[in-house]
Amino acid sequence: MSLIDDAPAPRRILILAAHPTPRRSIAGRALRQAARQVGGVTIADLYAEYPRGDINADAEQARAEAHDVIIFLHPFYWYSTPPILKEWQDIVLEYGWAFGSDGNALAGKIFFSALTAGNPEESYAGDGYNNFTLRQLLTPLEQTADYCGMAYLPPFAFFRAGHAQEDNRLNEHVAEWKGLLSALRDYKLDIETARTLPALNDQLKTLTKEA
């Protein structure tokens, strides 16, 4: 058998995008558009699909089962996600499917949050005015992933999103985002090292390895 035959199939990546007013988000729109340029990536705009919030549990479970990586793409609203992502968790992560003695549908999948934040990076620290690190503030998502047997990665964040086009920061962030998605897809990201970090930002060179 050849090495090509032995190679694992590329990971399938699902991005659950949630922004109540996506046209007003320059950074969020750029990240969504960039993700569509990466092969093996599925993007679901939850607010567009469920304008009344009536999430279809069966359809969402099937979609999650069909992918190896699940990413929440969202603005960081009041130290959390927009409400539809909380609704997604409440409706989709059912006992007997996502957790419980027979609930292992998500076990082994990779999960993390890619977000845009209005505050500067240094504000997310014990001595910053947000008092906690970004990863600490996302602890509920980390615990949810752990409870469902998923491999949780730290957040990939774009800070000061209201100033997205200053100093070419957005272009650099988008390029890193596409590189991150490609590395995840192609098994070139050091998952175990990534899991120990406070954030995935500016870590692509350190975390990328040969497949």
Describe the protein in words.
The chain contains ten helices and six strands; from the N terminus they run αβαβααβαβααββααα. The mean pLDDT is 93. Strands 1, 2, 3, 4, 5 and 6 form a six-stranded parallel β-sheet that branches. It is globular. It is an alpha/beta fold and 211 residues long. The protein starts with a helix and ends with a helix. It has helices at 3-6, 26-35, 46-49, 57-65, 83-92, 134-137, 139-147, 169-185, 191-194, 204-207, and strands at 13-17, 41-45, 69-75, 110-116, 151-152, 156-158. Strand 3 (69-75), helix 5 (83-92) and strand 4 (110-116) form a beta-alpha-beta unit. Helix 2 (26-35) runs parallel beside helix 8 (169-185). The longest helix has 17 residues, at 169-185. It has one domain (3-207): 3-Layer(aba) Sandwich (Rossmann fold), CATH 3.40.50.
End-to-end separation in angstroms reads 18 Å
As for the CATH topology, it is: Rossmann fold
Order of helices and strands: HEHEHHEHEHHEEHHH
Gyration radius, in Å: 17 Å
Question: How would you sum up the major sheet?
Answer: 6 strands, parallel
H/I helix tally: 10
CATH superfamily: Flavodoxin domain
Oligomer status: single chain
Q: How big a fraction of the residues is strand?
A: 5-15%
The level of helicity is 25-40%
Name the overall outline. Answer: globular
